What we know:
The structure holds two protein chains of two kinds.
Chain A: H1 2-8, H2 14-49, H3 53-56, H4 59-67, H5 77-109, H6 117-133, H7 136-147, H8 151-175, H9 179-187, H10 192-223, H11 234-243, H12 247-275
Helix pairs in contact in A: 5-6, 5-8, 5-10, 5-11, 5-12, 6-8, 7-8, 8-10, 9-10, 10-12, 11-12
Chain B: H1 3-11, H2 23-46, H3 51-69, H4 74-77, H5 80-111, H6 122-135, H7 138-149, H8 153-177, H9 181-189, H10 194-228, H11 236-245, H12 249-280
Helix pairs in contact in B: 5-6, 5-8, 5-10, 6-8, 7-8, 8-10, 9-10, 10-11, 10-12, 11-12
Amino acid sequence: MTASSDTASFGLSTETVLVTRRRKRLVSAIVTTVLLALVVWSVDVTVVKDTDWERIGSVGNVLEATNRFIGIDVDLFPTLLGPAIETLLIACLGTFLGVIICIPAAWFGAMNITPFKPITYPLARLMMTLSRSVHEIVWALFFVAVMGLGAMPGVFAIAVRSVGFIAKMSAEAIEDIDHGPVEAIRAVGGGPFQVFFYAVLPQVLPQIIGVVIFEWEINIRRSAILGLVGAGGLGLVFFRQMNTFNYHGVTTVILAILIIILLGEAISHAIRRRMI
Amino acid sequence: MTPRDMSIATAAEAPREWRRFRYPHSLVSYGSWLIAFTVIVYSIEYLEIPLDRVLGMFGRMGEILANRYYPVDIDYIMDVDYIGSVVETIQMAYLGALFGLLITVPLAWFAAYNMTPSRLFVYPGARFLSMSCRAVHETIWTILFVSILGFGMLPGVLALTLFSAGFAAKLFAEEIEAIDMGPVEAMWATGANLFQVMVFGVFPQVRVAFTGIGIYTWDVAFRAATVVGFFGAGGMGWYLKRNVMQIETERVAAIILSIIVLVLISELISAWARNVVMKMK
């Protein structure tokens, strides 16, 4: 009866322990049942009823449809270089613009340095949530509608989309800073701007640069598809190949995207490791 | 004369100059800023961004928002059909995240350096699989699956499955790599095989973290699910596509608004659920 002697010292009887244990088991059983019921219902609605099984046909048909994609269109290589560079540069510029928008967002969104808590703090939080909750495709659609086709709406879509993550991480980094320098700058009469640039920024800069590089890596992934809604880069080539049913070309573009992303990942990994 | 001697020499007449970075470090630091700056300028040049028009753009943006998107068509998103599509989206995200997590468990096991069955063959393979799931954007997966399986929610579910698997596998593998190896070694010592070690030595340690990651994955998958329909895979994305094509901007605004509200709700639910799970630990 080790359980009873252990729990007796905390003022619990074996009875209560058993009751809580039983209740816990009941709760987990209920949660599991509900989750499983949801699975059954969702599978029934989405997979069984909504799928056009006649169009899919047999397993052979699916394999045949998949087989169309296997192969590489060599003729496409020269035309891929320009869009590939464009994709990379859209990601760079979008991240840069995102960082610029982030500076006020992170400043206002950090509890300890926000200039006027009741207004600026919720405002910054709203900015971050808004930016994160809307998908990059939707942002791109909006900016394409406003600015017309081309690389520029892509840059803006990526910038706006990356604000949420960078600002949130930066604000958290700022909330964790050492308060000594902040008080020192305040004590010699520094205003909020001077406090931010001379006391806060030097402390958090390495962390923020790490976050920005990580976000840049994600942004390459995003900029590679923005062309699907008319914002330049490899996505546009992908869209064209898909619409002309050149399946080998589609595979080639996907491979190109993979290569760029691998490149970005290698660069980001190298920089972050050297910084830390 | 080295810089140090100079500074000593000048210290007599003027206060010594303070620099944040000294010579070799400063070169690297300023050099990297310079490279970053060059890349930015070059991209503005290459992408032909009309800098003179950028500022005027904001006025136009506000005008367009106010004139075309403003009276948000709330009735449209209160429609029964639309709410049905929202439920479909939630189901797709739920199934996608769930199937993705089912794939993730073995994938993360194989991709965790300390527990993988074979560091030579299985580890790189699993790493490559999880990385390529992550690298290819969910919309591309959707387009591929739609072109293979036809329109409907099945391709959406499959695309979200791969997306969630790529997303969760990395986090989960990192979690496995960070476990306490004591229990694992104890189990090896008693002669347990790899499977037993995983089930009794590793999973109890990462169970709570995995539940948290699972809930977060659902949240992220829901965000992705709002647009997979845009490429023909059911859910509210299809409504978005239709209205964008018809330039029904007020309805588009309403749909975007509903996406924001739903994502906020899902974020709140996931934060609450993760809190509950953490407390149960």
